[in-house]
Amino acid sequence: MAEVRGPNTWRDELASLIEDAGVRYVADPITISTTPLSFDGETTTITTKTTTDYQNDKLEEAPPESLKDQVKGFAMAWGEILMELGRGCRDIVQQSLLTEDSYIVRKLEKPIARASAKLRYFNEFLPEDRDPAHAWPVVFFVFILALAAINVNTQYGSLVPPVKRARIHPPNATRIQLPDGRHMAYHEQGVTADRAKFSIITPHSFLSSRLAGIPGIKMPLLEEFGIRLVTYDLPGFGESDPHPSRNLNTSALDMLHLANAVGVSDKFWVLAHSGGGMHALAALKYIPNKVAGAALFAPVTNPYEPGMTKEEMKRTWENWLPRRKFLYFLARRFPRFLSSFYHRTFLSGKLERIDKWLSDEILIEDPIFEELWDRNLEESIRQRNVKPFIEEAMLQVSNWGFRLSELQVQRRCQGRGILPWLRSMYSQAECELTGYLGPIHIWQGMDDHVVPPSMTDHIARVLPEANVHKLPNEGRYFPRSLDPLKVQSSIKEEIKQPPSEENEEEKS
């Protein structure tokens, strides 16, 4: 074996043992010399690359990292950090809040156990090999997806007719100034004031205006009976100024000021439909000496009226859609939330289809009536102010300031105690009749789903003197069986002979 020749330094010895370890010497870079080795007469040369050459080879082999790869790596790193953070929060919650002796577990353990026991019968609908804890979340998730699919299908799957936009017409109403400085807009139909035999003042219903009047009324009919019909805009509706704090008492006083301003010197009749009924009933309570009689068409009463029986209240609420029930609940408990709903519906400027509001097919198919309906709605939202509509909804479901039973004719004696009672037995001068003494007529369509007949039944029970006319197979406006001539004739007879206090005393 040939002897290896050549001087070997300590660096040559180190390089012969290890490869490039990444150690750098600034002053003297590491280099490995080429040393010839001879084995059995053959000379072999070992050539070792320098560290600089080795790094250059690595740079040539690895391609540069793109921005996409950097973002991907950054996102993966953050994902791992968030996962670890979530696991840590979960462990903290389990160890501090969900233990058996924690406050939350002690307070919720019994209610959750009772609720689980009541809902446990739902598990009978699951397959026997399915764990309820895993099956019900899947069922709930699928239910949410189904609702979303149905909603998308109803919105975009069918052809939706174009929506009509509300127009704002130029002001054209006649207005009067009330004692408090507000202005009230009104509209007259029929004969003039000097020829009028009967004066009728009509407060409109919700989402309506002075232009509503009596739907389908003919001018020759008003002239034949000598009727002067005066309709007006409630505060904040149409062209009437809003009232800062209105109630049913101020509504009755507005009606009285209107009658005096338009020259109604004698008593007048009040005629109202649907939601306008509460304003007409308020007139019977607060200005009974100026009201000759009342004609109400499907009047709305307070669905939360304490005087309603359980059967009347049940029949009132059972036919309403969940949407209407929810709106009544909001008007009574959280009226501020009505603002968002009203702005998304009629105050958005879109005229909804008439069949969403009416149940009378004849009126729906009549283009003339639909045109009048749209014009009336446009006038109602003229001011684009949501406050009057919220006030009207609140008035309907809140305390009216009086009960319907107070309108009932009854004898009331002054004073309380034994002496006034003994005195009233020998003298009739100490007693007087209270309530509303004039005639009250009510017409109700038995197929009306907006104002259910149970409301009229409640009025008839509380006010037995009222004349209730039930119309079978009729809806909201009952145009087929209601003959205006017969209505006006029946009212005309009672106008000629109004009940006097002496006659009421004889009845009592």
Automatic annotation (TrEMBL):
Transmembrane segments: none
Organism phylogeny: Eukaryota, Viridiplantae, Streptophyta, Embryophyta, Tracheophyta
Pfam families according to UniProt: Abhydrolase_1
Alphabetized PANTHER family for the sequence: ALPHA_BETA-HYDROLASES SUPERFAMILY PROTEIN, HYDROLASE, ALPHA/BETA FOLD FAMILY PROTEIN, EXPRESSED-RELATED
Region feature Disordered, mapped onto this chain: 479-508
Protein's UniProt name: Alpha/beta hydrolase fold
Keywords assigned: Hydrolase
GO MF term list: hydrolase activity
Keyword Hydrolase: yes
Matches recorded under Gene3D superfamilies: alpha/beta hydrolase (3.40.50.1820)
Record carries keyword Hydrolase: yes
Residue ranges of domain AB hydrolase-1 in the record: 219-476
